[in-house]
Amino acid sequence: MTVNRRRFLQAATTGATVLAAGTLGAPPALAAPGGFPDYRYVRTLLRPDQLGYDPTGEIIFPCVRGVYDRLSSPIGRYYLYYAPHNDPGGICLAYGDSLEGPFTEYPGNPIVANRWDPHYSVPHVSSPHVMWHAGQREMWLYFHGDNRTTRLARSADGIHFTYDKIVLSTSMLPAGATEASYARVFPYNLPSRGARYVMVFMRNITADRRNISWGWSADGRNWQFDPTPLVEPQAVGAVNLSGPHLLERNGNAYVVYHTDKGSGGNILITEVGADFSRRRHLGVFYDSRSAAPESGRAAAPCFGTDRGVPYMIYEAGERLGGVIAMARG
């Protein structure tokens, strides 16, 4: 048992819930905080050195979506979006028929580049998050470029996108914000705010400390943002936080996010309640292993279920030097 897992078990006596959770073909295992599956690394899905589009030798921020029951003629059951981060970046796609892999690189990558006339020309675009918009029956892509700006593009097939608009920028946030990126958007009802969607993202400030922030929207296009961070790094013993993802369980909302490697390199979890008013820090959600490919860092998780089995797809390894990996719950 690792040190961080022991710390989690000790923390359970102060509020975190420990449940028995079985996986197919495996004995019961401890659940993660909040009763979520206890994900375990299985294999690497994508490596930069095996990709045809590889301008910088690094990839980050996976987002996986089941499309077999949503798109009319998908090229695979699952679409896995990812990107290099360093200039020029580029939003990329891989596809496969199982979350276990294998995934095949789309030959037309990048599907969104750092120049899109007449809408923008920026050093890089990265951090793709795709949301299925049921009302519009479209795949909505949120991505950043540059680090101060998050944009929206829309697609009927998940491959060919039409530019929409800027949805988040540092100019929309309190003074002192220097970055607004790594955003993920989810359908989530907040009746008190007239909202049907929630955004979680990383905000950097002039002190060079990255927190997790959030906003809400009635339509997924026009947003309001809370001036107060959702999770401050000092509240969870970290210097920088990033890569947030929203999870729901038993009527409550939770945000998972990762710390910088110097603060442990793990994925943590905070319960925010049904209306995002709670701040209950539950500790380690996923404990990065010292062995490769994680090498002490797991980051930017996204989640999916394939034939009833839960999966987590995430960055494994050094920032800008890792791979896209898969863990099974």
UniProtKB/TrEMBL annotation:
Is the keyword Signal in the record?
yes
Where is the secretion signal located? 1-31
Q: Which domain of life is it from?
A: Bacteria
Which SUPFAM superfamilies is this protein grouped with? Answer: Arabinanase/levansucrase/invertase
Alphabetized InterPro entries for the sequence: Glyco_hydro_beta-prop_sf (IPR023296), TAT_signal (IPR006311), TAT_signal_bac_arc (IPR019546)
* Keywords on record: Signal
NCBIfam families, alphabetically?
TAT_signal_seq
Q: What is this protein called?
A: Secreted protein
Source organism per entry reads Actinoalloteichus fjordicus
